[in-house]
Write a structure and sequence with these properties.
This protein has about 180 residues and is α/β, with parallel strands linked by helices. Helix content is about 40%, strand content about 15%. Strand 1, helix 1 (about 15-30) and strand 2 (about 35-40) form a beta-alpha-beta unit. The radius of gyration is 15 Å and the shape is globular. The termini are close together. The chain binds flavin mononucleotide (FMN). Flavin mononucleotide binds next to loops. GO terms for molecular function: FMN binding; oxidoreductase activity.
C-alpha cells in the first residue's frame, strides 16, 4: 500500500479547498492508498527564516512544525498538492511550505490538483518553474478544476462526472508512479 500525503493550499476559514481535499482523499482511499493530510492551517509553519537554505549542508530547522512537515514528506511515497491560484501563482502559504524542504523533494512523485477561475493553470506553471530547482517527479495529468464549470466558487462540486474523471486520472497516475 502506498503512503500519500495530501497538502492543503489555503488557510482561509472558508477555503474552497475544504471541499476539494476530502474528494481527493476519498479517491486515494478507494485505490487503497494510506492517506494523511498536511493541513497547513494546523501545521502553522513559520515563514522561512533559516540562516541556511535547505539545499545547503548543515541545514537543520528547529521548528517542531517544520520537522513534522519534513518528516511527512520524507516518509510519503507520493504527495498531492491541492492548490488554489493566487495572483496567477501558488498560494504564499503553500509556496512557503514547499520552500522549507529541499532534498526530500528530489525524485518525490508529486501530483497537482488545482482549482480556480483558470483551473489553476498559472499556479502549475509556477510549480514547474520551482521544479527546475527541486526536481520533484511531477505527475501528469494534473487535475485542473475550473470554477463555475467543475466547481462552484465556494468549492462545491458542480460537475461530479468531470471532477471525478480528472481527479481519478491524476491520483491513478500518482499511485502508478510510487
Ligand atoms: C489574493 C488572491 C488572489 C487571487 N488570484 C487568483 C488568480 O490569479 N486566479 C484565479 O483563478 N483565482 C484567483 N483568486 C480567487 C481564488 O481562486 C478563490 O478565492 C479561491 O477560493 C481561493 O482558494 P481558497 O478558497 O482555497 O483560499 C484569488 C484570490 C485571492 C484571495
Amino acid at each position: 500500500m502506498v503512503k500519500i500525503v495530501v497538502v492543503t493550499g489555503s488557510v482561509r476559514p472558508n477555503s474552497a479547498g475544504q471541499q476539494v481535499v476530502p474528494y481527493v482523499v476519498k479517491k486515494l482511499q478507494e485505490k487503497d492508498a494510506v492517506v494523511s493530510v498536511a493541513d497547513l492551517s494546523k501545521l502553522a509553519l513559520p515563514f522561512f527564516d533559516s540562516a541556511l537554505p535547505p539545499s545547503m549542508e548543515g541545514f537543520s530547522p528547529e521548528h517542531q512544525s517544520v520537522l513534522q512537515w519534513t518528516t511527512m514528506v520524507k516518509e510519503a511515497d507520493g504527495v498531492v498538492l491541492v492548490s488554489p491560484e493566487y495572483n496567477h501563482s501558488l498560494s504564499g502559504v503553500q509556496k512557503n511550505a514547499i520552500d522549507w524542504i529541499y532534498k526530500e523533494w528530489e525524485g518525490k512523485p508529486v501530483a497537482f490538483v488545482g482549482y480556480g477561475f483558470y483551473a489553476a493553470k498559472h499556479a502549475y506553471q509556477h510549480l514547474e518553474l520551482m521544479n527546475e530547482v527541486l526536481h520533484m517527479k511531477l505527475i501528469e495529468p494534473i487535475a485542473g478544476l475550473q470554477f463555475m464549470q467543475d466547481l462552484a466558487v465556494d468549492g462545491a462540486v458542480q460537475d461530479d462526472e468531470a471532477v471525478s474523471k480528472k481527479i481519478d486520472a491524476t491520483v491513478s497516475a500518482l499511485i502508478a508512479a510510487c
